[in-house]
Amino acid sequence: MITEQQTDLQGAYTELFDIDHNLDRLVKKIELLSYVNPLNTEKQKQLFFASKYSKNPEFRYPKLKFDAYKLHRLFFSQRLERVQDDAIRQLYQDIIYYYSNMVQCIETIGEGKRFYYNSLRVYGSPTEKDVQNARFILHYADAPHPPEMDKIFSPEEAKSYFLDFSKQYDFPLNVKFSTHMAADAMVSNVSQTLLIKKNTKFSKNQLLTLANHEIGVHLVTTFNGMLQPLKVFSNGFPKNVETQEGLAVFSEYMSGALTLKRLKELAYRVLASDSLIKGYDFRGTFDLIHNQYKLNRNDAFAITLRAHRGGGFTKDRLYLSGLRTIYKRYREGRSMDHLLTGKVSVDYEDAINTLYDKGLALRITHNNHAFEENRNTDKTLDFILNNLK
After folding, report:
1. Along the 389 residues of the chain, how does pLDDT read in single tens digits?
2. If I label 47, which of 39, 111, 167, 221 is the partner at 20 to 30 A Cα–Cα?
3. pTM to 2 decimals?
4. In terms of C-beta distances under 8 Å and separation of at least 24 residues, what long-range contacts does 5-9 make, across chains too?
5. Radius of gyration (C-alpha) of the chain in whole angstroms
């Protein structure tokens, strides 16, 4: 329902709302994760193991459901010069370039280096500090394996757990099962759905982790974004992935779900992403993670897959750097509220403040309950997070 205040705003910023509406209509077609996850992961995993890790997998991907060239043309046909405010016009110019780069990513999935270079434009590559932080984390000895880490829960039991967890939030939880996923669970922002991997098992700790990560942040920002006057909060600011994943892992930490094992997983992802710029193929990255760093072959395959899907996907390098940024903000006593308004980025906080000042952004409706109290009791994690560069 559009309020009288929103009607007045739309009258005052007619050109802005027209552009925002146009972009909303266009961007609904380009959810990258629905295209970049292979359709034949399990079969290729079996073949890779059967070859004794000597034959690179050959992944298949979903077909495009849009005309990429036409979409590019429509993005750049927006009349941004009609937006009077310089800061808002610059924000939307950055947004259009970001969405256009996302289209280039999707249209080159499976095309090796072409996709990889497009991925670099959107997600960047690990910095030397990122790699040093990853190695710093990995030098810690593994903790004992407690019972709550045993994978004994079915996808149906996971669904029941997530539905129960979501009762603390005032939004509906739509859950679906999927077989074509690199992650065990993920949120589809477009359909406001929590997707659960069908052919896997979950541990008690993993359920707590995923609930606080996927529901506590990704769905919270999805539904907060939908309540904003401007659709860009729902569709995503440039560089929003690093902030959103940082918030999500920080939610794991605050809820007491984050473990050294999970932190190491994020470190492995950084090294896998770094291996791409060094020219490693799938076998090379797998060898690095499995044989050199001694991670078990199933987890090593999953991390390698996430890095190499599409032709070289560097999104995973952002989880650790995002966590470092959000944890530093927490230590400084700064509020997270602005960062929960939607799919926004720390880099655009000044732009968000401008939108607030002009009445073009609203205070959040849904908060992250894990942020209310620090339930972490692992002093090793505190030491690591306090010493990340």
Report:
1. 555 556 666 666 899 999 999 999 999 878 788 899 999 999 999 999 999 999 999 999 999 989 999 999 999 999 999 998 999 999 999 999 999 999 999 999 999 999 999 999 999 999 999 999 999 999 998 878 788 888 999 999 999 999 999 999 989 898 999 887 778 888 887 788 899 998 899 999 999 999 999 999 999 999 999 999 999 999 999 999 999 999 999 999 999 999 999 999 999 999 999 999 999 999 999 999 999 999 999 999 999 999 999 999 999 999 999 999 999 999 999 999 999 999 999 999 999 999 999 999 999 999 999 999 999 999 999 999 999 99
2. 111
3. 0.91
4. 5/359, 6/229, 9/229, 9/359, 9/360
5. 21
Sheet holding 174-178, edge to edge: 174-178, 193-197, 185-188
Residue type, 320: L
3-state secondary structure at position 258 = coil
| CA gap 338, 349 in Å, rounded | 8
